[in-house]
Amino acid sequence: MSSARAPLVVLLAASSIWLPLAVSQSADDCAFDNEGGTISTCNLVMNATPFRLKSWKTGTGITTNYRGGPGVDAQQSNEGGYAFASTSDMLQDFPLPTKAWMITSPNNSTDSLGRCLEFAFASEGLCVESLEVLMVMYKTNDVDEIFFNNTLTKDYQVMSLWRTRQSTKAEWKKAQVTFSAPTPHSLVFSASPDKRFASRGGYVAVDDITFTEGPCSNECLFDRDLCTWTNNDTADNFDWSIGRSSTKIGTGPSKDQGSSLNTFVTTGGYAYVDSSYPRLPGDKAWLVSAALQPTAVPLCVKFWINIYGGGTGNFRSEYDIDDMYMKFDLHCYRNRPRETAALVSKPFTLTSDVCLSFWVYMSTTILSHIHIGALRVVLMYEAKNVTVWRLQNQQLTDWTYSQVTPPNTNSYVAIEGVQGPRVIGLMALDDIAVYPLSCPLEPATAAVQEADCPFDQDLCQWKVEADGRSSSPTMMWHLALNSKVLIDHTFNADEGGFAYIESFNTDQKSRMKSPFLPANTTFCLALWFSDIYEDNAAKLSVIRSSEGREETLWTVSQNVITDLPVSGYTTATWRYAQVLLPSHNTTYQLVIEGEVTRSAWAVDDILLIPGRTDCI
Ligand SMILES: *[C@@H]1O[C@H](CO)[C@@H](O)[C@H](O)[C@H]1NC(C)=O
Ligand SMILES: *[C@@H]1O[C@H](CO)[C@@H](O)[C@H](O)[C@H]1NC(C)=O
Ligand SMILES: *[C@@H]1O[C@H](CO)[C@@H](O)[C@H](O)[C@H]1NC(C)=O
Ligand SMILES: *[C@@H]1O[C@H](CO)[C@@H](O)[C@H](O)[C@H]1NC(C)=O
Ligand SMILES: *[C@@H]1O[C@H](CO)[C@@H](O)[C@H](O)[C@H]1NC(C)=O
Ligand SMILES: *[C@@H]1O[C@H](CO)[C@@H](O)[C@H](O)[C@H]1NC(C)=O
Ligand SMILES: *[C@@H]1O[C@H](CO)[C@@H](O)[C@H](O)[C@H]1NC(C)=O
User: How many A from CA of 253 to the centre of ligand 1?
Assistant: First the structure.
């Protein structure tokens, strides 16, 4: 069905030449001036604790370079001020990395032409995951009260406007972002750490923040008009118009790009052409930018497109760009925690490397409830399923690009959603593509080792070793289902989802053995455990088992408490452990051994991080 009717021709071009700005100061600007040793933070809100996040700091090359900040500011002065987020602050609560926010003071809605934010940024170190510019939209009109009366428990919603993930290697770069806001809002500079490189340190810094009314040069939100873009009267046959929401059934986007993922935002505008009558096949509509200045560096044109309906040229039969994505339904009341739904491929026979790429969206609008579930890529063999990529719980408030090269095998590939507790949020998947080349795993936080286990559906690749003494399956390691004793650590959901052993009056020992770990690699083993109904004979150990030799690497016992609660339940909580697994000259297995007499052990979220040298 490729009857080519009215193909679209879009002429788009953009420039990011840094023309000197007409000097028009906005109350939101900030150059972090060094005023006799005090760095001015202008009207910025530097304290992010109302959002339960870490804060940015100010500094100069002279005062903060040795504490992990940049050596100069954006004007290349070692005395000039800047703001920065250091990864040592963001990783203070390891293993729960925390973002750092710097927030512009709340402002009213913008007008429909929007505003232009320009700023300089620099970053260095492997430990920086990303710098993002977010828009926080407040549900209240009384914006002054939000920070100054600490009433931020009120609902707000976050939308991502801009993001970079590459280190600038300490070089200052410039960025611009055009945005419009229909509600009272703040913009946020959000730095995220990469916890895998916690030992390396790093920073993200920002300087010379300016705001101007209207869009940034050559940019256009198409919320009010075509900005500096024009329709050409001579070279084409019909014109582009501004639309808000399609009034026709079967064609036109229902919302603009900025609001399509965000129910909180009323719809903005977009430029569009309608190919229906009186348009004829071959008609063209040109949207032409203002004249661009020559540049020494390549420019990048970015735009969002939406093509929908019959008769929109030959795009329709080749792509399906319908504002559509696969959604994992988090809201369905019949779904229980840890239930899964899988999209399964045709059988794959992989004889050479391929790159499986896709985009995921995993976010909740309630930032205090970050547990929403997991998405994972699973290779399905006859006898076992192997996870090769996994992201869980709250991610960026934007689509995240993801890719993985599965090992060469014969298997089905499934992309699986795992239900967390019931939450308001969205888990979605889009643009799955397979390329004939190998690619590094993205995002780095989705890396999975074979011995990792969140204990969602099973014990993963861990095997329980039979022990002659164990008379009942509950006295051996097993997956806890419907447990009322403890809330699962992975999703903070009830109904089990961790490894568990218990005994009421006999000495029991049970061992769980990992798949083989590679030789000559140092790992940091991270796990969560809980001791339930304390008993002084109980022990939990991590043992390395290699060619018949065993070496205990870590042991913990339970503290005796004299007054057991009457109900028989303790208020059990999860505790975190890290165990260094020094490099070994052969492959080996890990054993998790639990000993109990009148108590229980629970273990969850086993994670192996290769190459970590600072594991304690
Ligand atoms: C808020 O926005 C207006 C116009 O959009 C701007 O003039 C003003 O400087 C901004 N900031 C504050 C703190 O009012
Ligand atoms: C927002 O609008 C209200 C009402 O028009 C006004 O009183 C207030 O000063 C404005 N706030 C800012 C930051 O511009
Ligand atoms: C803070 O909010 C509370 C509850 O709305 C109100 O009673 C109180 O007067 C406010 N205080 C200030 C300083 O605005
Ligand atoms: C329309 O496009 C043609 C061909 O590129 C160009 O010569 C002409 O100047 C344009 N006219 C306007 C009004 O942009
Ligand atoms: C692998 O996963 C699929 C999809 O969730 C499931 O139906 C199947 O039972 C699993 N196979 C094994 C061996 O666990
Ligand atoms: C591995 O290390 C052990 C001691 O830790 C040593 O006895 C053994 O010879 C080594 N094996 C190899 C192949 O190097
Ligand atoms: C590990 O290193 C040892 C000593 O360098 C070497 O003999 C052994 O072959 C290596 N093992 C593997 C699996 O690479």
Answer: 32
